[in-house]
């Protein structure tokens, strides 16, 4: 039986007869042409379970690592079947390669033992990891607090140039996206509220709802979430890459504390920019609401009059206090995740993801805490 | 001088970044099966030349032929065929950190051949054993030492049995013993598999141990200042800078 399995290699088989399977391989055995021969020959040898496989290799014109691997694999299969492989006519240069590779493939190093992890062990490991994470978070908060106090006492030690550049990236460059999203959220909320309030002829109260919800909740929240997605992730990626490239170690050995050098400027920049962005988001959100009110037939002056009746300075200040907190959280968690980066390119991606996820979770938790506090303070 | 034995031909090659010429009018040939080293001081354009030779950057002028194919103009199918002819080991190893060592070596075989999956794993495992990394199949690159990462990178570069291997600073950052082991591996692969090696290095011990022929680049002339066997250049070169390089003497105008 002869099969032309590729353009440049062919396999012929005969038997098994009297415990001997005859194979003949001809042509070029390289990475391109070995695939078909590999499937067919290993199938034949495994199925035949012959005491001897007689391989005629005289017509092999070329044989590289893939071809040699096939010959070694055929020999191994025969050894597994308690048989033997006899190769005839293999050119001396290929025989030399075969001997060389066969010797190499017999060597073994230290194999990595795969340990099967039980469910209970996995839960335990997870719990320990969460505890370690909390421990690191607390330690980081302490370090950051200390660095911020030192920075307040000695403002000249702050890297102002870095801080301003980061502030530009965090604040000015984020204006378009904050403006677009806040305006659209204002429009959407106003439309949704108008649909419900129309049933009671109370569409004028859309202004109250927009004013309160944007200033107290949506403005700070949208700004913080955009900050987490844009800047928190960028901080984690930037510091994470520095960690992978051993730049953080270099800072430490130069006597420069990474928290002071890298984290403080980022936290200060976010602290300064988040309230500013929040005010901007509040304005655009309210503008979105006003556009909807005008489309419903209410003059602008009526909308603003109603807005003035509904919102107080407390609403605005309450929102801005939250924005301060969100800014610190997002920047700090982004930097922390960056500093926690392990080795490898994928580790930076993982840190970035963790920075955004942790940032958003902390924002929502903190928002909940503020809501309860404001409720009791009648803000 | 191109002969039948020539596998790489660099002809009138000029490299420039933003109009600044780094290397000017280089001409040399690399013969089949030889270990060819590109030497020179820091910043002379060794790695630049290597990166142009593997087609990462287009030259400002000239041609680079590998086995008769022009690296600088090959496109589509011709480029794919050309890329199969050579393997590259980068200075850092450039192993994919998210994949195990075995998966790193399997990748080219999976992408470019129709070998069955078990054959691919077998071949990749064999290549790792060939470079002395048998049993490290399931390790991540980050779990290996620098020397082991470089050997794994060589195994990946030779996954498809290329005719030419380009190595960028293979001994950089390695201890003398590991470096010597790597030299032995390169020599063994060159002799047993008839692979042509083009190596960028400035490790003198490596050069004398493995290089059949070297070219020396010098940034002051933006080109080649010497070509030949390393021992001949060390002992008989007429260029004082070349002798100085091989004897590791400090520069006269830079006594430090």
Structural overview:
The complex is a heterodimer of chains A (379) and B (256). Chain A is of the alpha/beta class and 379 residues long. Chain A folds into two domains: 2-106, STAS domain (Transcription Regulator spoIIAA, 2-Layer Sandwich), CATH 3.30.750; 143-377, no CATH class. Chain A has helices at residues 34-48, 65-80, 92-106, 119-153, 160-170, 175-198, 206-244, 247-253, 258-295, 300-310, 313-339, 345-377; strands at 2-4, 9-17, 20-29, 52-63, 84-88. A five-stranded mixed β-sheet of chain A has the order 1-2-3-4-5, with helices on one face. In chain A, helix 1 links the parallel strand 3 (20-29) and strand 4 (52-63). Chain A is elongated and about 105 Å long. Residues 1-6 of chain A have low confidence and may be disordered. Chain B contains nine helices and ten strands. Chain B has a domain at 95-161. Chain B is an alpha/beta fold. In chain B, helix 4 packs across helix 5 (146-157), helix 6 (176-193) runs parallel beside helix 7 (204-210) and helix 8 crosses helix 9 (240-246). Chain B has helices spanning 46-53, 76-83, 101-112, 117-130, 146-157, 176-193, 204-210, 230-236, 240-246; strands at residues 6-17, 20-31, 35-40, 61-66, 69-70, 86-89, 164-168, 196-200, 213-218, 223-228. In chain B, the strands form two sheets. A six-stranded mixed β-sheet of chain B has the order 6-7-8-3-9-10, sandwiched between helices. Helices cover 36% and strands 25% of the residues of chain B. In chain B, strand 9 and strand 10 (223-228) form a beta hairpin. Chain B is globular. The chains are: A alpha/beta (379), B alpha/beta (256). Chain A binds chain B through residues 30-32, 34-36, 38-39, 64-66, 68-70, 72-73, 96-97, 100-101, 104-105, 107-112, 114, 343-347, and chain B through 96-98, 109, 112-116, 119, 122-123, 125-127, 129-130, 132-142, 158, 160-161, 192-193.
């Amino acid at each position: 039986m002869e099969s032309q399995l590729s353009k440049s290699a062919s396999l012929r088989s005969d038997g098994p007869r009297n415990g001997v399977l005859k194979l003949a391989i001809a042509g070029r055995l390289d990475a391109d042409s070995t695939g078909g021969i590999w499937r067919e020959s290993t199938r034949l040898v495994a199925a035949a379970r012959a005491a001897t496989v007689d391989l005629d290799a005289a017509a092999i014109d070329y044989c590289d690592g893939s071809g040699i691997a096939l010959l070694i694999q055929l020999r191994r299969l025969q050894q597994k079947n308690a048989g033997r492989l006899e190769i005839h006519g293999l050119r001396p240069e290929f025989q030399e390669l075969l001997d060389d590779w066969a010797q190499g493939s017999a060597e073994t190093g230290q194999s990595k033992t795969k340990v099967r992890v039980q469910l209970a062990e996995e839960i335990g490991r997870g719990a320990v990891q969460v505890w370690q994470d909390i421990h690191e978070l607390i330690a980081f908060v302490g370090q950051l607090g200390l660095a911020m106090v030192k920075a307040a006492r000695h403002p000249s030690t702050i890297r102002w140039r870095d801080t301003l550049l980061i502030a530009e990236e965090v604040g000015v460059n984020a204006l378009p996206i904050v403006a677009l999203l806040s305006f659209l959220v204002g429009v959407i909320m106003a439309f949704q509220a108008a649909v419900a309030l129309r049933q009671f002829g109370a569409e004028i109260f859309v202004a109250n709802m927009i004013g309160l919800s944007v200033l107290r909740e949506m403005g700070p929240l949208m700004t913080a979430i955009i900050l987490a997605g844009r800047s928190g992730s960028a901080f984690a990626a930037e510091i994470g890459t520095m960690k992978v490239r051993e730049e953080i170690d270099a800072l430490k050995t130069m006597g420069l504390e990474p928290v002071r050098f890298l984290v403080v400027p980022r936290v200060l920049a976010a602290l300064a920019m988040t309230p500013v962005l929040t005010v901007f988001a509040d304005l655009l959100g309210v503008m979105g609401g006003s556009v909807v009110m005008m489309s419903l037939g209410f003059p602008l002056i009526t909308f603003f009059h109603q807005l003035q009746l509904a919102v107080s300075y407390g609403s605005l200040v309450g929102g801005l206090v939250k924005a301060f907190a969100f800014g610190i959280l997002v920047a700090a968690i982004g930097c922390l995740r960056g500093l926690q980066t392990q080795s490898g390119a994928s580790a930076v991606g993982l840190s970035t993801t963790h920075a955004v996820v942790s940032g958003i979770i902390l924002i929502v938790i903190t928002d909940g805490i503020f809501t309860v506090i404001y409720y009791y303070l009648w803000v | 001088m191109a002969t039948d034995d020539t596998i790489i031909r660099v002809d009138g090659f000029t490299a420039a970044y933003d109009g600044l010429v780094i290397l000017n009018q280089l001409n040399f040939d690399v013969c089949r099966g030889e270990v060819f080293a590109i030497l020179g001081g820091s910043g002379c354009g060794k790695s630049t030349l290597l990166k142009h030779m593997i087609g990462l950057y287009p030259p400002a002028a000239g041609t680079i032929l590998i086995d008769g194919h022009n690296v600088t103009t090959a496109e589509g199918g011709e480029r794919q065929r050309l890329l199969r002819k050579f393997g590259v080991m980068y200075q850092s190893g450039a192993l994919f950190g998210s994949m195990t060592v075995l998966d790193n070596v399997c990748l080219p075989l999976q992408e470019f051949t129709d070998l069955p999956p078990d054959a691919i794993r077998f071949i990749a495992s064999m290549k790792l054993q060939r470079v002395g990394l048998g049993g490290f199949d399931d390790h991540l690159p980050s779990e290996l030492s620098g020397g082991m990462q470089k050997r794994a990178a060589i195994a990946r570069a030779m996954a498809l049995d290329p005719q030419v291997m380009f190595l960028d600073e293979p001994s950089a950052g390695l201890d003398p013993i590991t470096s010597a082991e790597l030299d032995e591996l390169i020599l063994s692969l060159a002799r047993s598999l008839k692979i042509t090696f083009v190596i960028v290095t400035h490790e003198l011990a490596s050069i004398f141990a493995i290089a059949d022929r070297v070219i020396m680049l010098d940034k002051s002339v933006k080109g080649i200042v010497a070509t030949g066997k390393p021992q001949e250049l060390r002992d008989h070169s007429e260029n004082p800078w070349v002798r100085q390089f091989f004897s590791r003497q400090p520069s006269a105008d830079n006594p430090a």
